[in-house]
Amino acid sequence: MTTPDDPDGPDPDSPEGRGGASAVLPAGPPDTGRAPLDRRRILGAAIEYIDAQGLSALTMRRLGAHLGVEAMALYRYIPGREQLLDGVVESVIDELYGDPDVHLEASHGWQDYLQRLAHGVRRIALAHPEVFPLVATRPPAAPWVRPPLRSLRWVESFLVAMTSSGFSEDAAVAAYRAYSSFLLGHLLLEVSQKGVAVNAEDAGADFPEAEPDLSEYPTVVRLQELLSLDESAAEFEEALENLLERLEDVLREGRSPRHPESFTDRPD
Amino acid sequence: MTTPDDPDGPDPDSPEGRGGASAVLPAGPPDTGRAPLDRRRILGAAIEYIDAQGLSALTMRRLGAHLGVEAMALYRYIPGREQLLDGVVESVIDELYGDPDVHLEASHGWQDYLQRLAHGVRRIALAHPEVFPLVATRPPAAPWVRPPLRSLRWVESFLVAMTSSGFSEDAAVAAYRAYSSFLLGHLLLEVSQKGVAVNAEDAGADFPEAEPDLSEYPTVVRLQELLSLDESAAEFEEALENLLERLEDVLREGRSPRHPESFTDRPD
DNA sequence: CTAGCGCGTTTACAACGTAAACCGCTCGGG
DNA sequence: CCCGAGCGGTTTACGTTGTAAACGCGCTAG
Questions:
Q1: d(C-alpha A227, C-alpha B176), whole Å
Q2: Count of alpha carbons within 13 Å of B35, Cβ hemisphere only?
Q3: How much is the pLDDT for B247?
């Protein structure tokens, strides 16, 4: 039992769960017959390197070495390290285009659209846990381009999907914001949690872990097992479902998403 | 009008809105009669420096200079740069203790407790927008110590508040997770949005901003004003309210938070 | 054949984090 | 009175980083 998962079958967003999400094109043999080094190859190698060694290990020199080349060679294709990282996050979310389960148009209803998109992003986050914090924290181009959906193309797609499904413009924008927050919070916490888990695992198996002394926190110790369960998939699903319900209410009642008023007597 | 705020009065969580949140004790005069340099002073100066110059500008040497001291002097109090950053995030969330509006016990009900805590954290995030990404992304000590509430003490406080208010243990833990996700997503996006706004503002006032070409994204341009509105405070409030309602349902119906069931008859 | 140029290398430098040695105080015990 | 010890900060030093600038190689066009 490597992953203590629920009995509802394996997590559908786990790596290799879907085809397109983790297609990074591996850098190939590092020295034999080496391909002519273009921007895409560099970004792919950078993603691969971060996935394998962690973000802090990514260095111009080391990335160059990984590609069988000197560090300065990269500067003919990329202006500098910062822009390399920008390119990395762009490339990573562009993997959404290669995901056959995510559509740009809401041809099966907006709920289907949002569901597929959310799981697509989750698949990416889980495929590149070391990259995702970068996706989350790199300053966006404009204030309204929000992580983790960082591209104009997806913002456009999202807004079209919602407005063409009957949402007012206000409601579509509000939905965009709520959706971004939901995705970012859940996925960032999920990958960080996973990162801690593997760090704790490969650090010291014979070492007794050096717990920080829980004697002052009896409730924490009592609930420790419960707290240690990884229910990420189910929680993600539930929170997504709840968001969709909220949006459905907004749509049905045609009211402004702000000031929801009158929850005194909910009919259901 | 330095801050284009809404007409509903100023944001109650804006800096100086509440007393305790931004008490960082300024580093004092950098060279005259300098205090004897202990760990707290160093961490305070680091926070101050990050707030003023940005995270990437924080350097051992520069922080030393800011304190009127050589870089190596810091190593007598802090093992290294990574631990300095850990100390910074710990210090920043410890500001919660100084906030008179946030309580460790739910003496006025769990909703009041969660409301106050959420706004306390939001105040901190807004007071230290450059630090908050660190709070969000630094790997926690244990997988169940989740940002942005990163201390055992607050986890304990949270769980006690909920269980003593009638939540089952499962429900309390689920609430803890949902609450963390909500806070993290909203606040990280809010500070990142603010960061982009000020960056765009001080970069070039005479420069026409170099927009990236929106001609392919007609819906984005049509909704641009709407998208550019900063409704963070209201959205935060609304999402928090919604979370509290969900939790109230869980409490009232006494059911497990997972498997809300009975969504069988969705019209589509 | 040769001038140019696309592409990768070499060299160079300032800034970084940090190990290690080095002072100059202020002590407390003889 | 001395004097070794140790605390607190400095100096020196080293390896690594990002990147500017000059260099060279091999191809292709005139």
A1: 9
A2: 14
A3: 97
Residues B172, B159 contacting (CB under 8 angstroms): yes
CA A230 / C1′ C28 distance in Å: 58
Do the Cβ atoms of A100 and A18 come closer than 8 Å?
yes
Contact list in A for residue B195 (CB cut-off 8 A) is 139
Q: Which CATH number fits domain B20-204+215-253: 3.20.20.190, 3.30.70.360, 1.20.1560.10, 1.10.357.10?
A: 1.10.357.10
With a cut of 70, list the residues of chain A below it in pLDDT.
Answer: 1-9, 16-34, 202-211, 255-268
Residues whose CB falls within 8 Å of the CB of residue B243, separated by 6 or more in sequence, listed in order: B114, B178, B179, B182
Predicted pLDDT at A207: 56
* B51 alpha carbon, distance to own chain's centre: 13
pTM for this model (two decimals):
0.86
Any CB–CB contact under 8 A between B186 and chain A?
yes
pLDDT at position B11: 79
Assess if CATH 1.10.357.10 describes domain A21-201+222-253.
yes
A62 touches strand D (CB under 7 A): yes
Residues 223-242 of B with CB under 8 A from A: 223-224, 226-228, 230-231, 234-235, 238-239, 241-242
Asked if residue B99 lies in contact with residue B26, where contact means CB atoms within 8 angstroms, the answer is no
Q: Note the pLDDT tens digit of each residue in A173-232.
A: 999 999 999 999 999 999 999 877 777 776 655 555 566 788 999 999 999 999 999 999
* Residues of B in Cβ contact (< 8 Å) with A155: 217, 220, 227
The pLDDT score that the predictor gives to residue A14 is 79
Does B147 contact chain A (CB < 8 Å)? yes
CB A209 within 8 A of CB A200: yes
Domain residue ranges of chain A, discontinuous segments joined by +: 21-201+222-253
* CB-strand contact B54/C, under 7 Å: no
A7 touches B: beta carbon within 8 Å: no
